Each structure stands twice: as structure tokens, then as C-alpha cells.
């Protein structure tokens, strides 16, 4: 409908991108950017060090980023990057999004290299294209030579040689290279796992893997397949492509963090896959940091996988959305862009539906393992082969499993929207990247222009003063650490007192319960949340509860446990709320401490810090309901005691006397007393109360120790990051001043020419920025029209 408008907007975006690339080429030739790829200490920028965006390598990276945006808009391609840890179920999620198995699951990482998965209508069987295979071939040759010099037994001590690795070693020895095309899921799986094993083998043999050769997105492997969820839909004016990215530190490869950030920067949007059961794990935190590093230039969505593993004490859907949007992701994502799902259920359900649509039945479960998994999830673990014969029942079960997976909402809101508006997503991505470039370029160029107007002596004085500030910042870290540790100690002590106070309150409520035989009135509202009004569970005057059969005893104990869990759940909610406030206050206090420590330095270089984009942030552990799970079941184990007690009974005596009594049917005589042992099932209420108190004390002790350790670690890491960022900002300013001094020391004609060149670059940058903002507004207007 809006093809002409999209075409015209695309033409404008191309023009602005070309202009920005020309501007960067101009900057590359200036005397400012012909040097200084090292820091103040003569070290190259590598690892976690980030060079200036306008040093030679920085300009090259920005050019690559803009070239990628130019490629995407000319091809009308929207790239949706999928990022997540190995255990989060990223491959399963991608399979669920596509609707069929494209990335087979494996226990170890499967994404050694970024992989594009492109929706290709009509391509039912996936095909992988790997045209840029030359760097891998060179690696294979190098590994072949190294293997000739390496004993296999020695290698086995450094590397797990399983069947897959053994096959790869044979392949390298025989000189078999990678093909450029693979058709079908299994050949694709074989190719991808071999690439991943190559990473492991290269590390073991100390041969560099050519990751840098695949930094450009056009060089990575591409899988073409029709997305089942998009089959039959009206074709959009654009191309939708998923980008499967390596997880940070995946397979013990720390450099993948940098590769991940580079790939995310090239995406049109990001879909993060998080593990519901591990939302606060270190690995998920690495993913969050990489995503937050992209800033606001890339739209973000989150799938919280494994939501099917939620138990009744776990965070519900709304709590998960609030936790991620407001806390874990620091407010950079809206709650409506967070989707709790079960990727495995979504994948199995949709694959079953797809098979039924194509063949009218499911494959043999004995030959297709996924069918067994589907039957377990959809029909229950007691399913029989005959249950799969009725296609109507199987189809209904698949639909119910799909509904339970909660995958329908993200498919419609993310996948369908991305497919329908791929071109506009690509255009919007280009605008965001252009605006990011122009904002940084204008600050840089203004700094440079101002530097040319300052005398050399003043620049030298500024550099010397700044170097003094850098040394002062390093020494200030020690004094700040003393203050911070004092704050941490106070916070840990306050938390300990807080937990001890709550333990006393919990024990008081437990004692109240056992004194009266029912949940305290002040917790009645919480009890009603369980769906029933709770009365008396037992007579509080009794010390023990005695039953004739074990089943009755179990029912009584279950009632007591349910009431005790009401008490613990009420405490859990209050503790969560108050500890959240405690940690929030501590975070603010620590940030204030660090800022006040460096305030004198910051005041002297405030302008430079602003131009360098300096910012501070300390991320403390977040206390939420998922960390408070009392799970009191263990406290109620083995509390029913079986006792044998004597019971007096009457019986007819043997012999003539008993016979005569039976004849006369007499109840008054002819009986004799005797004793038998009978089983009784006894619950000692004092033992129940004692064991519950012990459980609460043990749980809160572990909680206190765990949270104290988390605070210590988080503050330590936050301190290091804070001062590293501050030092990097100062170093960037120092390099800029040094380059200004170098330029200022040229003859006046050269300085004048450079000044004119910079002024021209500033004008072009402002022009690009102004036109890009207008283009962004036009694209947003078109988005709004499309959604009406």
C-alpha cells in the first residue's frame, strides 16, 4: 500500500548514509586520526578497553556499522538478533519461532559463528549457504600440521574427544574441507557442530580461530527456510532474517562477548532469550550487559523461556514482566515487550501441527524422538502408541499445548509485525544508527575545533593537569573503597538485623497458630487468597493428635502444613518488599559515595567528561520473591509416628463354659478379658512446631549468608567498573588534547586548513542529523498509519 513512500524514504536514507560515510573518510585523512591507537601507558586497546570512536579503528568500526545499515535498506532486510545463554534454550526458541527444526539441540554450544536464518517462501527444507569458507579452510590446514606434531594421548588430556570430535579429527587428517552448501536439517547440524568443535580444537592446539574474518554480517553462514508461522501470509515489501548470535563467554571463549556486542550493533532489533529458572545467574547477567551496551538504538524484546517450570511459589507473569522491565533491564524495555513462554512446548506443538497439516499424522515415535517428547508434554507420560493414531485427538492436544506455551502472543507481536514491516524496521534502524553517529561526531568535532583555538602552552598545561587528575583518580579508588566497604558492612549488618527481626515475627505467628489451632486473624486475608476460609485445624489443648489409620494422619498433617505455609508466604511478601527498599537505598548511597569521591576531579574536567559521554552505574543484587522460597515441605517429613498400644477386649472362653454361653446367647456371663496391640498414628504438635522453627532458622541463615556474599561481589565488581569507566573517560580526553596539541604545533597554514576542514565536517554532521530526524519522524508516521 505504501510501497512508493517506502521507496522514497529508502532513497533518502541511502543518501544520508553515503554522506556520513564520506564524512568519516574525510576524518580518516586528518592528522588527528593517523595515530593514537594506544593509551597513556603505551598499551594497545584490546579486551575490555574501548578506544575512541574517532581513532583509526573506531572510524573503521563506525564505517562498517553504517555500511551494514546501507546494505540492509538496499536489500529491504530487517535483521532480528536472537541472543541468550546456552542453557536458556536459544536453539529451541529459534526452532519454535521458525516452526520446524533448523538448529538441532545439543548439550554443548551450537553457535560458534553468528548464523543468519532467512525467511524464504517455498523453501520447505532448510539449506545452509557458507560461501565465505576460505578462512575455515586455512584453519583446517593449520590444524592438520599441528596435529601431525601432537600426540593424540596428550591432546585427549586437554580436550574431550567424543564421537563428534573424533570424526572432525579424521576429517582434518584426511584433508576434507567444508562445503559451501548443505541441504537438510541433519547436514546443517553436522556443519554447525563441526564449526563449534573447531573452536574447541583450535583452543586446545593453540591455533587462532578466524573470528575476525566473520565480523561482517555478509560473511556469516546463512540458512534459508520458510518460516511456518509466515507461510501463506501476504508477502511484505522486505526481507525478515534472524541472527543467531554466540552467547557471551560461550564454550569458554571470552572474546565472544565482543563479537556479540558487534553483532547486536548491526541488528535492526534484538530478541533476548532468558531462562526463567536462572534470571539472576551470572550467564544471564552477561547477556543483559551486552544488550544494555547497545543503548536505545536497537528495539528490544525478551522471551522468558521455561515458564512451564513455574511452581506455585514462583513469580507469575506480571511479576516477571515487572522484574525484567524495571529492574534487571534498568527500564530500557517496556513490560509489554516481555513474554514468558515455554519454547519447548511451542516448538513441539507447532511441529506437530505442521506434520498433521502436511501428512495427516505424526511420524513414528520410535524413529523420531521429538514425537515422544510431544506425546509426553501433550498427552501425559502414560501415553500409548495407539493414542497417536487418532489425528483429531492429537490435533486438539497440539492446539492445547501451543496455547499453554504462550508463544502465540510474541509470534504475532514480534514475528508477524517484523515480517509485515521489514523495510520500515530496516529504515528505522538506519535512522537510529545515523543519529547515534552524528551525536558523537558533533561532540568530537567541536572538541577538535575548540582545541585548534587554544595556544600550545595552554594545551600542554591542560594535559599535565589531566594526567595529575588521572593519578589522583587511581589513588582515590583506595580511599573510596574504605568508605564503600563501611557502607557495605552497615548494609549487611542492617540486613542481618532485619532478617533476625522477621525470624522472631515468624516464630511468634507460628506459636500463635499452635496455641490456638488456627491461622492468626491478622493473616486471614492472606489465607483467603488460597481460595478457602480456614477454620480450626486441631484442638490446641491437645499435645498430640492420634488417628487409627495413616491416611487420616496424613490429611491432618497436610492441613497443618498448608496453614504454616500461609504464615511463611505472608512473611515472604513483606520481606521481599522491605529488602528491595534496603538494596535500592544501598545502591543510591554507594553511587553518591563514588561521585562525591571523584567530584573534585570531575569538576576540573566536566566539559571533557560530558563530551566523552561519561556515566556511572553500580548494579547490586536485586531481591525479589524468587529468592524467598521457604518450601516448608521438608519440615513436615517424618512427623507421623506409628505406635503400638495395648487395647483391652472380651472374648468367649474355650471349653464347655463358652459353648453353654453361646447356646443361651447370654451377654452377662461366659466372657473373659484379654489384651491386643493395635497401631495408632500420632502427631506430636510440639515436635511439628520445633521442626518448623528449625527449618525457618536454617533457611534464613542461608539467605543471610547468600545475600551478604552477593552484595560483596556486586559492589566489588561495580567499583572496578566505575573507576575503569572514569579512567577511560579521562584517557579519551587526554588523547584528544594530545592530538590537538600535535595539530596546533603545525604551521599556521596547516592549522587554518585543518580548521576549515573541521568546520565543514561539523556543518555536514549537523545537516545529516537534522535530515535524519525528519526522516525518523516520517518513518514513525508511516508505522502509525500501517497499524491503523
Automatic annotation (TrEMBL):
Any one GO MF annotation of this record: GTP binding
UniProt xrefs under Pfam families: Dynamin_N
Domain of life: Bacteria
Domain (Dynamin-type G): residue spans on this chain: 74-412
CDD domains found in the cross-reference section: Ras_like_GTPase
Stored SUPFAM superfamilies: P-loop containing nucleoside triphosphate hydrolases
Name of the protein in question: Putative vimentin
Organism annotation: Buttiauxella brennerae ATCC 51605
Amino acid at each position: 500500500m505504501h510501497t512508493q513512500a517506502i521507496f522514497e524514504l529508502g532513497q533518502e536514507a541511502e543518501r544520508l548514509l553515503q554522506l556520513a560515510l564520506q564524512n568519516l573518510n574525510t576524518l580518516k585523512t586528518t592528522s588527528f586520526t593517523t595515530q593514537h591507537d594506544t593509551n597513556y601507558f603505551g598499551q594497545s586497546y584490546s579486551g575490555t578497553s574501548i578506544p575512541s570512536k574517532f581513532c583509526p579503528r573506531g572510524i573503521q568500526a563506525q564505517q562498517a556499522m553504517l555500511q551494514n545499515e546501507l546494505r540492509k535498506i538496499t536489500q529491504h532486510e530487517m535483521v532480528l538478533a536472537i541472543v541468550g545463554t546456552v542453557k536458556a534454550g536459544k536453539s529451541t526458541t529459534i526452532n519454535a519461532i521458525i516452526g520446524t527444526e533448523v538448529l538441532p539441540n545439543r548439550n554443548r554450544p551450537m553457535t560458534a559463528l553468528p548464523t543468519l536464518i532467512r525467511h524464504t517462501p517455498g523453501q520447505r527444507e532448510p539449506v545452509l549457504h557458507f560461501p565465505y569458507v576460505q578462512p575455515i579452510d586455512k584453519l583446517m590446514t593449520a590444524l592438520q600440521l599441528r596435529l601431525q606434531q601432537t600426540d593424540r594421548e596428550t591432546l585427549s588430556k586437554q580436550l574431550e574427544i567424543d564421537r563428534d570430535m573424533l570424526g572432525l579429527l579424521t576429517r582434518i587428517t584426511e584433508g576434507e574441507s567444508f562445503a559451501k552448501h548443505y541441504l537438510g536439517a541433519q547436514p546443517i547440524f553436522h556443519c554447525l557442530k563441526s564449526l563449534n568443535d573447531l573452536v574447541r580444537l583450535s583452543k586446545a592446539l593453540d591455533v587462532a580461530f578466524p573470528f575476525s574474518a566473520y565480523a561482517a554480517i555478509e560473511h556469516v553462514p546463512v540458512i534459508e527456510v520458510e518460516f511456518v508461522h509466515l507461510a501463506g501470509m501476504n508477502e511484505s515489501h522486505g526481507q525478515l532474517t534472524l541472527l543467531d548470535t554466540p552467547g557471551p563467554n560461550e564454550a569458554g571463549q571470552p572474546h565472544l562477548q565482543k563479537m556479540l556486542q558487534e553483532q547486536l550493533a548491526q541488528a535492526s532489533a534484538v530478541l533476548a532469550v532468558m531462562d526463567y529458572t536462572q534470571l539472576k545467574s551470572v550467564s544471564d547477567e552477561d547477556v543483559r550487559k551486552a544488550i544494555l551496551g547497545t543503548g536505545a538504538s536497537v528495539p528490544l524484546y525478551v522471551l522468558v523461556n521455561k515458564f512451564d517450570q513455574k511452581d506455585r511459589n514462583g513469580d507469575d507473569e506480571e511479576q516477571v514482566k515487572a522484574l525484567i522491565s524495571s529492574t534487571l533491564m534498568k527500564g530500557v524495555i517496556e513490560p509489554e515487550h516481555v513474554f514468558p513462554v515455554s519454547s519447548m512446548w511451542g516448538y513441539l506443538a507447532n511441529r506437530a501441527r505442521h506434520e498433521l497439516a502436511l501428512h495427516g499424522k505424526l511420524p513414528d515415535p520410535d524413529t523420531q524422538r521429538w514425537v515422544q517428547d510431544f506425546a509426553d508434554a501433550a498427552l501425559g507420560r502414560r501415553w500409548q502408541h495407539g493414542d497417536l493414531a487418532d489425528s483429531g485427538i492429537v490435533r486438539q492436544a497440539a492446539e492445547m499445548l501451543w496455547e499453554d506455551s504462550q508463544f502465540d502472543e510474541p509470534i504475532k507481536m514480534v514475528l508477524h509485525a517484523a515480517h509485515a514491516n521489514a523495510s520500515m524496521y530496516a529504515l528505522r534502524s538506519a535512522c537510529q544508527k545515523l543519529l547515534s553517529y552524528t551525536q558523537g561526531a558533533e561532540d568530537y568535532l567541536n572538541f577538535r575545533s575548540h582545541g585548534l583555538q587554544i595556544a600550545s602552552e595552554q594545551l600542554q598545561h591542560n594535559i599535565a593537569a589531566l594526567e595529575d587528575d588521572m593519578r589522583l583518580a587511581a589513588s582515590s579508588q583506595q580511599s573510596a573503597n574504605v568508605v564503600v566497604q563501611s557502607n557495605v558492612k552497615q548494609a549487611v549488618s542492617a540486613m542481618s538485623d532485619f532478617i533476625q527481626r522477621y525470624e522472631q515475627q515468624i516464630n511468634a505467628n507460628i506459636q500463635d497458630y499452635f496455641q490456638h489451632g488456627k491461622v492468626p486473624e491478622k493473616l486471614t486475608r492472606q489465607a483467603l487468597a488460597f481460595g478457602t476460609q480456614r477454620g480450626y485445624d486441631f484442638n490446641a489443648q491437645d499435645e498430640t493428635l492420634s488417628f487409627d489409620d495413616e491416611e487420616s494422619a496424613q490429611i491432618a498433617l497436610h492441613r497443618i502444613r498448608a496453614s504454616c505455609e500461609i504464615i511463611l508466604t505472608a512473611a515472604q511478601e513483606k520481606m521481599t518488599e522491605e529488602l528491595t527498599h534496603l538494596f535500592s537505598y544501598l545502591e543510591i548511597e554507594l553511587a553518591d559515595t563514588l561521585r562525591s569521591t571523584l567530584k573534585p576531579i570531575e569538576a576540573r574536567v566536566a566539559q571533557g567528561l560530558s563530551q566523552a559521554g561519561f556515566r556511572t552505574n553500580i548494579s547490586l543484587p536485586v531481591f525479589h520473591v524468587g529468592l524467598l522460597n521457604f518450601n516448608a515441605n521438608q519440615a513436615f517429613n517424618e512427623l507421623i509416628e506409628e505406635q503400638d498400644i495395648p487395647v483391652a477386649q472380651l472374648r468367649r472362653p474355650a471349653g464347655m463354659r463358652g459353648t453353654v454361653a453361646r447356646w443361651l446367647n447370654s451377654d452377662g456371663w461366659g466372657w473373659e478379658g484379654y489384651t491386643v496391640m493395635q497401631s495408632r498414628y500420632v502427631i506430636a504438635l510440639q515436635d511439628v512446631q520445633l521442626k518448623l522453627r528449625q527449618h525457618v532458622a536454617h533457611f534464613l541463615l542461608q539467605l543471610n549468608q547468600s545475600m551478604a556474599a552477593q552484595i560483596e561481589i556486586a559492589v566489588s565488581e561495580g567499583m572496578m567498573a566505575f573507576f575503569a569507566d572514569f579512567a577511560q573517560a579521562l584517557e579519551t580526553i587526554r588523547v584528544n588534547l594530545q592530538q590537538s596539541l600535535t595539530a596546533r604545533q603545525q604551521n599556521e597554514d596547516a592549522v587554518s586548513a585543518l580548521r576549515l576542514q573541521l568546520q565543514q565536517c561539523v556543518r555536514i554532521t549537523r545537516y545529516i542529523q537534522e535530515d535524519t530526524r525528519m526522516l525518523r519522524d516520517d518513518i514513525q508516521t508511516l508505522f502509525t498509519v500501517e497499524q491503523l
